[in-house]
Amino acid sequence: MAYDRATPPSAEPRTVEEVVWETVGRLARRFDAHDDARSLDQAQQWTLQVLKIAEETGEASQAVIGARGTNPRKGDSHTWQDVHSEIADVVITGMVALARMRPDDAEQYLGRQGGEGSQVPSGCVGRRPSVPRGDSMSGTWLPPEQYIATLPKATVYGCLFVTDEANRPLQLRAARNADLWQWPGGNMDPDETPWQCALRECLEETGLRLAIEPRLLAVHFLPPLGGWTTHKIGFIFDGGRLTRKQLDSIVLDPDEHTEVAVKSLDVWQKEMSTHSFARLQAVARARHTRSVCYLEQTATP
Fold first, then answer.
1. CA of 166: how far to CAs of 236, 241, 245, in Å?
2. Which are the contacts of 3, defined by CB distance < 8 A and separation ≥ 6?
3. Within a 13 Å sphere around the CA of 283, how many CA atoms are in the beta-carbon half?
4. Can you give the pTM of this predicted structure?
């Protein structure tokens, strides 16, 4: 679509692409007219437009810094929604630059640059990105069952971070390893959500039936480690603060755990591995700050 061609009236619904390119065309014509009035030659106009892309990219970078709060002077000055808006500005500015440089075929040129392999038809979720595989099948669409077979495998667990009323974390000593302390939780069953899994495992392992709403504290990712051949992804939820009566009512499954303990973080640090305590501390901090953390483990504790 040439950006200076008028779009004829039509009763047919317009696609997002048509609307976007029409907007890009209007902006390109406006900027061309403005720069022509300033007697700027083509090279100057193109140069300024490309520099505008760099300016918008810088604003997107500043928004990321603000969203992460990594500038001590400004703190949390942006949200990730601000980042999304700035990225959209970068994309639109780049499209306007292309439309000004290639007024007759900007849309087609962008499509050719993307290449057939990167265009995923609607509904073709099974198209796998091209990767070096040593054969001619890279990038070929696969039926869902075949495509799924090429993906990494993962188990999912759900668990609850619970404390006493003094905010001291509760943990259970594993029956199979006396040095391992765990939260109430376990692997997810088929047709079960991580939250349902956490509540079920807590009931099975402690006898506690908690009537609480789900609040996520952390997501925990582990690659295949030791004898475990799949990835593992964990969802750690806030199990709340238990009363003395609730703590006294805990009944352990002896096949799973041999002891329940409630201790301060300072005491837990002396009894846990570095990896395990770092996870405990991060989750406790997430609850205290009412945030969610991402934990990634790359070595066996």
1. 20, 8, 14
2. 21, 24, 25, 28, 29, 99, 103, 106
3. 33
4. 0.55
- Per-residue CA distances from 128 to 122, 123, 142 (Å): 14, 13, 8
Collapsing DSSP to helix, strand or coil, 6 comes out as coil
Residues 31 and 52: their CA atoms lie apart, in Å, by: 12
Structure tokens at 247: 């703590």
Q: 60 and 88 in contact (C-beta within 8 Å)?
A: no
The residue to which tokens 């404390």 are assigned: 163
For the chain, the residue count is 301
Six-digit token pair at 5? 């061609």
Cα separation, 130 vs 128, whole angstroms: 6
Q: What string of pLDDT tens digits covers the 301 residues of the chain?
A: 444 444 444 455 668 788 888 888 899 899 989 988 999 898 998 899 989 898 889 888 888 888 888 877 777 888 988 889 889 888 999 999 999 999 888 888 887 877 544 443 444 344 444 443 333 344 577 888 888 888 989 999 999 999 999 999 999 999 999 999 999 999 999 999 999 999 999 999 999 999 999 999 999 999 988 788 899 999 999 999 999 999 999 999 999 999 999 999 999 999 999 989 999 999 999 999 999 999 998 765 5
E strand or H helix that includes residue 195: helix 194-206
Give the chain's largest Cα–Cα span.
85
Residue the block writes with tokens 């039926």: 143
Phi, psi of 154 (to 5 degrees): -150, 145
Instruction: Give CB contacts under 8 A, 24+ apart, made by 134-141.
Output: none
Would you give the distance in Å from CA 148 to the centre of its chain? 20
Query: Where does residue 209 rank: exposed (0-12), middle (13-18), buried (19+ CB within 10 A)?
Result: exposed
Please choose, from the candidates 30, 6, 29, the residue with its C-alpha nearest in 3D space to the C-alpha of residue 18. 6
